[in-house]
């Protein structure tokens, strides 16, 4: 909106990190390599984006 000098933007932000406290030794758990855990069951940081 040039008249009001407003710019609206939408997009996707993908974040990934490895939480080493969630590791295990596959040989101790039937050689299971990966599992899926809902993000509601694991702490995730609050993200705040702002314009400087």
UniProtKB/TrEMBL annotation:
SUPFAM superfamilies: Nicotinic receptor ligand binding domain-like
Domain of life per record: Eukaryota
Gene3D superfamilies in the record: Neurotransmitter-gated ion-channel ligand-binding domain
Family matches, as InterPro entries: Neur_chan_lig-bd (IPR006202), Neur_chan_lig-bd_sf (IPR036734)
Extent of the signal sequence: none
One Pfam family cited in the UniProt record for this chain: Neur_chan_LBD
GO molecular function, one term: extracellular ligand-gated monoatomic ion channel activity
Domain Neurotransmitter-gated ion-channel ligand-binding intervals: 1-51
One GO CC annotation: membrane
UniProt-recorded name of the protein: Neurotransmitter-gated ion-channel ligand-binding domain-containing protein
Organism in which the protein naturally occurs: Rotaria socialis
């Amino acid at each position: 909106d040039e008249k009001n000098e407003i710019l609206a933007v939408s997009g996707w932000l993908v974040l990934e990190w490895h939480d080493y406290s969630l590791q295990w030794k596959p040989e101790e758990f039937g050689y299971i390599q990966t599992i899926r855990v809902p993000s509601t069951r694991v702490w995730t940081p609050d993200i705040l984006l702002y314009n400087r």
